[in-house]
Amino acid sequence: MPACTPCRASASSTRPSVRQVLSVMTTCGMYDAAGDWVSNVGIPAKSGVAGGIIGALPGQVGIAAFSPKLDARGNSVRGVVICEQLSRDMGLHMMDVSQIAMSTVQTSVATIVAGVHEPHNRNCQREVIVFKLRGAVRFPGSERLTRAVARELGRPNPDDPGSGLHGDACAVIFSFREVYSLNHVARRIIHEDISRLILEEKIVVVIDPSGVLQWNHDEAENDRHPKVVRNETEARDFIGGTGCKAVSTDDGW
């Protein structure tokens, strides 16, 4: 993919240029330690004799470290250690990308329509926003979810048309029904995202029939935790009252 500036969608480098730079970083960016680096860290990187290391894993993450003390090969001693730990703890080795690529985040919006049992529920005719995750969710997948939540529920960004449109949604739903694997780093990040929304007084519902997010169902009944349910029907009933419906372009809702 072409390289883009952090705050704009425009590309700053072409695809061939990015591929060439990353290839050189992978094969010789760490001087004579390039082979050990690829085996132990697995992130294209470039070090400098001043003690800096920068790395980029395409489509997933960029990292940087600085510590002046160098090893015999001219690389930062502490920088190498922390990059090895990040790669190991967060599952960032490029040879693991096949599993990471299976993780996706889908966003949809639905309007709650009153049911016959509770026609005057306060959330009827209001929008809910749904974040669906699929596959094996690791750090890159959870980070994409964090970005999606910030984009949809945060303040509008002039450089990102369409952002901040659903900050007044009556509820936020996270669906893990199609998630089959969730590592501890991704789980912690998602827990923090949900906790932050609850502190902002959002109604948060988690669809988690397999318990991959590991919320305690007993604790989930109080106001400090999300409502944990097994399916979409239970989520709709909790938000809009028993028998309510949700109108959405997404067939799953």
From TrEMBL:
GO terms for biological process: glutamate biosynthetic process; L-glutamine catabolic process. It catalyses: L-glutamine + H2O = L-glutamate + NH4(+). Keywords: Hydrolase. The keyword Zinc-finger does not apply. It comes from the Eukaryota. GO terms for molecular function: glutaminase activity. It holds the Pfam family Glutaminase. InterPro entries: Beta-lactam/transpept-like (IPR012338), Glutaminase (IPR015868), STAS_dom_sf (IPR036513). Its EC number is 3.5.1.2. Homotetramer. Belongs to the glutaminase family. This is glutaminase. The lineage of its organism: Eukaryota, Fungi, Dikarya, Ascomycota, Pezizomycotina.
